[in-house]
């Protein structure tokens, strides 16, 4: 009787140990959350240098005091055709992602792009593979350069880890355009999503 009771208790203990969930480290938890929202973040804030510069306004001939509207309308028409072509392009959009996540203004943790290598819309590559972005020619729309870059911070979670804030920036290169954002994310029904994007600076 005592032996059977001992075996029964042992089986219960083994069962409870087997059902015990593995604890997830804070680092792994943050990586999981970031991977869940990264593409949504990029889709919300990325800048495409191919679409940034419409043709300049018509010039005025000071002798006749008239604007060259014929030349302007011709350029505008070509611009619209080009924009339609970009919108209908089924190729993946090349985005340069800054190699390291910003943590308290320190870039010390490399961001793993592997989970996104098969994304259908974006082709994510490390920005370090390309020349420094401030030297990019933003009017060059046919090269193999990224259309823009993205940089993200680590996630500042609330106490219960049900929401968090990410600081991100987007640029179209050339040192002439950039934007900063504060992005709020929340866990709703087990899924992480963006709930608010606030622009914090423009250059």
From TrEMBL:
Write down the PROSITE patterns for this protein, in alphabetical order. Answer: PROKAR_LIPOPROTEIN
- Source organism superkingdom: Bacteria
Tell me the protein's name: Lipoprotein
């Amino acid at each position: 009787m005592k032996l059977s009771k001992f075996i029964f208790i042992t089986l219960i203990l083994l069962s409870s140990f087997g059902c015990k969930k593995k604890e997830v480290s804070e680092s792994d938890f943050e990586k999981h959350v970031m991977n869940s929202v990264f593409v949504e973040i990029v889709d919300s804030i990325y800048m495409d240098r191919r679409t940034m510069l419409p043709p300049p306004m018509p010039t005025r001939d000071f002798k006749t005091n008239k604007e060259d509207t014929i030349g302007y309308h011709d350029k505008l028409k070509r611009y619209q055709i080009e924009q339609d072509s970009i919108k209908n392009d089924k190729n993946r959009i090349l985005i340069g992602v800054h190699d390291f996540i910003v943590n308290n203004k320190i870039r010390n943790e490399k961001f793993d792009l592997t989970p996104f290598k098969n994304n259908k819309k974006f082709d994510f590559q490390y920005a370090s593979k390309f020349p420094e972005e401030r030297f990019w020619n933003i009017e060059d729309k046919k090269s193999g350069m990224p259309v823009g870059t993205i940089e993200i911070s680590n996630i500042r979670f609330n106490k219960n880890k049900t929401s968090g804030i990410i600081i991100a920036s987007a640029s179209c290169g050339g040192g002439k355009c950039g934007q900063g954002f504060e992005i709020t994310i929340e866990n709703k029904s087990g899924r992480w999503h963006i709930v608010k994007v606030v622009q914090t600076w423009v250059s």
